[in-house]
Amino acid sequence: MKVLNNGKDKEQTNSNVEEVIECFNLPENEFIKDYDTFSIMEKKVTDYTHIMHKYPSKYIPQVPRWAIEQFSNEGDIVLDPFLGSGTTAIESMVYNRNGIGLDVNPIARLISKVKTTPINPKLLSEQYSRLLIAINNDPNLKEEVIPETPNISKWFTEESIYNLSRFKFYINQIENDDIRDFFLGTFSAIIRKCSNAEYRSQKTYISSRFRRPPANVFDMFDRRFNQYLQGMTHFYNEMLEKDSFARVVEGSADNFDLTDTLSELWGREKIDLAITSPPYVTAVEYPAVFKLEYQWLGYFADKEINEHRKNYIGTDRYYADQYKQKQKFGHKELDKQLEEIFKINNKKSYIIYKFFEGMRNNIKSVANHLKKNGKYVIVVGNNTVLNFEIPINEYLIDIAEEFGFKLEKKFSYVIKDRHLVFPRNGRGGIINKDWMIVLNKED
């Protein structure tokens, strides 16, 4: 490991600049001090099925891998209540732990299910050949699978609609559920690039300044399929020697009961470890990111998406009468910030309040399922909202104490690639590092 100060050797800078410790992988827990900041130099982040499907704000595999190796044993059950694209579940399986994850986002559940289901690559290659033959032998537009998107010709060219419809129609004909889902996941991954929309933005919109031509559907599907086949081949071969598996569950991170699922799958009532990365406050609106994918996959009509957005912790979708009154959370420092922000923007104050209310319920639910002396590792970034720095990590530590958790370790790592560019305009601030909070359940 090498200790840096903003990229310079320690002896070359003054002592009040934050030290950043370069490391290939995070060191063992006993060698990490509180408030250490690491720069993880390992660039291999697309091993196994991690390569499949872009997803905003996901953490690199080395982060949950560290927690899995430090705080669990083979055969243990690892929970991720904000499952996202399944990074924790994949790492759990690779290290012969069982994974279970929840998410309200149907795209997240599809991606995670695909990425944690080992499929013989030979079967996938054979199915892909049959798929292309069927599509090429049928030149007809498949109107029945085209979403009823308002102004769809604004979002997609006629050629893209024509080819996407044929892919979707024949993917739907695949009989095997797991193989069909693999191809639906691949289909989902090409939709944004084959549209007229900007690709690397949180918001689904068409740029008036930097308009780009949509990617060719056949070329993009072929590229993604071959990438994903390579990742699945590695994952499939790895899992031949393991007896672990993962289960993806539909559910909200702030109110869940997995008792029956745990009993049915593993004959257990408790999990051994929980690892998660909750959404940033007011930063990522996943339904806005996946607007086009939702419609092509048939999850939501355009008019239903805003209603779905209300189900997410950290959402900004609230009615005016909900944020007319000032809210108190019951935490002295947080309530003071809520009051100050309320004077400037009552809606922002309410959004922050609801985020912490959701996280309090999440921590309570995890505590109910976690064994004694089990760990809950939360990876979170601190936001700046309306020039107020919100120390989310510190507030979550205090909240966790309400449910029998005690802080064991807190440190951070530098974020190197967010994947999406967030047009925050002062809404969320720039998040340069994530905090890792290790909580021990003592009660």
Automatic annotation (TrEMBL):
Entry EC no(s): 2.1.1.-
Gene3D superfamilies to which the protein is assigned, alphabetical: Vaccinia Virus protein VP39
Keyword Methyltransferase attributed: yes
Domain DNA methylase N-4/N-6: residue ranges: 15-106
Catalytic activity: a 2'-deoxycytidine in DNA + S-adenosyl-L-methionine = an N(4)-methyl-2'-deoxycytidine in DNA + S-adenosyl-L-homocysteine + H(+)
InterPro entries linked: DNA_methylase_N4/N6 (IPR002941), MeTrfase_CN4_CS (IPR017985), RM_Methyltransferase (IPR001091), SAM-dependent_MTases_sf (IPR029063)
Keyword S-adenosyl-L-methionine appears in the UniProt entry: yes
Keywords: DNA-binding, Methyltransferase, Restriction system, S-adenosyl-L-methionine, Transferase
UniProt record, GO biological process: DNA restriction-modification system; methylation
Taxonomy, superkingdom: Bacteria
GO MF terms held by the record: DNA binding; N-methyltransferase activity; site-specific DNA-methyltransferase (cytosine-N4-specific) activity
Family according to the record: Belongs to the N(4)/N(6)-methyltransferase family. N(4) subfamily.
Protein name: Methyltransferase
Top-level taxonomy: Bacteria, Bacillati, Bacillota, Bacilli, Bacillales
